[in-house]
Here is the input.
Amino acid sequence: MKVSMKSLVKKYSWVLIGGVLGVGGGYYYYQNWGCTTGCSITSSPLNSMLYGAVMGGLLADMIQSLVQKIKHGRK
Here is the structure.
């Protein structure tokens, strides 16, 4: 079964957009509130951005599922 890149991007567009926004949010958090030592997530910009990408992708996936359920009238 061959899957095209276009179909993957269309299927996971919400997750990709959420991940990109999460990267920006993670970096913003690091710049304004991140600690310099002792914090595993916010002590480096890379860690903050990766964490933000994962959380943003998960949140966007939850929103996409909710929108699809509402759209199709399922509970």
Summary: Residues 7 and 69 are 21 Å apart (CA to CA). Helices lie at 5-11, 13-33, 45-72.
